[in-house]
């Protein structure tokens, strides 16, 4: 990076200000056309449903290499792709010759953008055919905010039109807002419904998923493809922002962001749309801010503030963005005396709206996390000292993964910080010392090294463990936590490569370019492989257990995969291991209850279900399992109590009403049972069990 604002925007490696030669632009154009031609050949000339197609699809999914394609009978797909490369390259050459010299610079820019976009999308081809993973189904198919007629209302109110949680007092603002939302809901819908209570407030992100659900419903491929496209656009926007900052190697920095293996989790996991989409709006805000700094157009400033608000409404982990604006102003202008500070004050005042938005949405998110996502569950991150120790270790861990992204996995082993030893504190002190050293040395090495590390660290602050998050019940660190912070490091890496290229000549430059090319290829191949790991639960969880056998979540999900395949004895082993690792978690007890119920041991199943509901009683599926088990063992009074509780959250569930009505019938509460059967028929006039039960009651005069 450099603070020189008078130099030309950087695009690739050579930033000396000399124009590109015609041949260099032509190579880029030909390369883009060749890649498009190869993609078309691979998709159009395959034998539909035949062995070549299957082999090629497996390759695209990251599950096999070229060997399977070469072994497929018939004309090898490899030569068809080679033909596509050749024809595409020829078309690119013919096209490039028609571009007038005057438009060459624009053609180069479009070629660079096209190449960046193609690479960004290409390495994630395995994810395009992926299924729902982890909690994607809860985010999409099991999310009432997407599947019911009240979806947009629930998304933007966050379920705050419900009554206050029992035994919990609302904060002043929520207490003031709740009755007003209830009155508005009554005027719109004619009733106060039981709204879905989301664990977080990310309404803009969820609205985008709502729109997509109206288009392709519960089909995973569409959501994955959109997430990949958003990531590719993020890479393009990052290139434009870095170019505005006059960062050497801006295009290369954007490419490193696009292919960085740590980012695969954010791109291949639908639930992390909040990462890719929040960065999209954040980069728009950054670009508008930089333009405002040059032009002083207040309309551009308002756009920047609104784009930041949009980013917050996708994911509030961007709350530290205003701090980075302050860092940027210091990086650009310096602050060596009181006179510098006085001159900088008007620009610093411009960051106040950003800070106010961060404060408001940040506090709201904390309330949602503690009141909804966490609830009564204990997050095992320890006391203040344990959190401080963990933050120091996590900062170094994220720095390592930004520079050397190896041994990546889904759930990492926990840090030994309960209780903390001496070394975690030493690690934290050393990290702060590194920041301090870079700050003190700015007169010798410039302000950029401190700016890069400070920018990286500031965006990590919300996820270092100082604030409780529900995800931290699994691990203190995760790949998707550094999707935003990494933009400073990829920019720095691109700049260092560009500057190194400029300084070298002859054989040294050739070796340097060869090494950089090898690094880029390794990043691409590893990201391709990681995208293949995220193809579905059958590939994700074995890989997670390979790196972290002691993860209760990985064991729990592996058990669920085997249970879904009908391999009950094998799944029982993983469920039991999950209970052993985390007996305080309700999910593992619920799953062990399923195993006991399958084996016919209903008493053991009920005991496990009761434990799950005792730990976390606001999960309808767990309480439903308990109610069904009680009904099967003819404990109808207890079953009816649980059915009644669930119906408050799921009044639309016809099967639940029929089960509740049957329990009431067995308790000889005939009028109440009849009401449930009749309500079920109103919602589904063709429901056979509800109709049959009413006919029986009519015949008996009940």
Structure description:
Helices cover 70% and strands 0% of the residues. It has 35 helices and no strands. The protein is globular and about 95 Å long. It starts with 21 loop residues before the first helix and ends with a helix. 42% of the residues are buried. The model is unreliable at 1-22 (pLDDT under 50).
Helix-strand layout with pairing:
Blueprint: H1 22-44, H2 51-60, H3 66-71, H4 77-97, H5 104-122, H6 125-128, H7 136-139, H8 144-147, H9 151-157, H10 172-189, H11 203-216, H12 220-244, H13 250-259, H14 264-268, H15 273-295, H16 298-312, H17 321-333, H18 338-349, H19 352-374, H20 384-403, H21 422-440, H22 442-445, H23 448-460, H24 486-503, H25 506-533, H26 537-547, H27 552-564, H28 568-581, H29 586-598, H30 602-615, H31 620-632, H32 636-649, H33 654-666, H34 670-683, H35 688-700
Helix pairs in contact: 1-4, 1-5, 5-12, 5-13, 9-11, 12-13, 12-15, 13-24, 15-16, 16-19, 17-18, 17-23, 20-21, 21-23, 23-24, 24-25, 26-27, 27-28, 28-29, 29-30, 30-31, 31-32, 32-33, 33-34, 34-35
Number-wise, the strands total 0
Strand residues, percent: under 5%
Any idea what the radius of gyration is?
29 Å
- What is the overall number of helices? 35
Structural class: mainly alpha
- Distance from first to last alpha carbon: 82 Å
What's the average pLDDT?
Answer: 84
Low-confidence parts, pLDDT < 50 over ≥5 residues? 1-22
What kind of sheet is the major sheet?
Answer: none
Shape: globular
The level of helicity is 55-70%
Which terms would index this structure?
0% strand; disordered N terminus
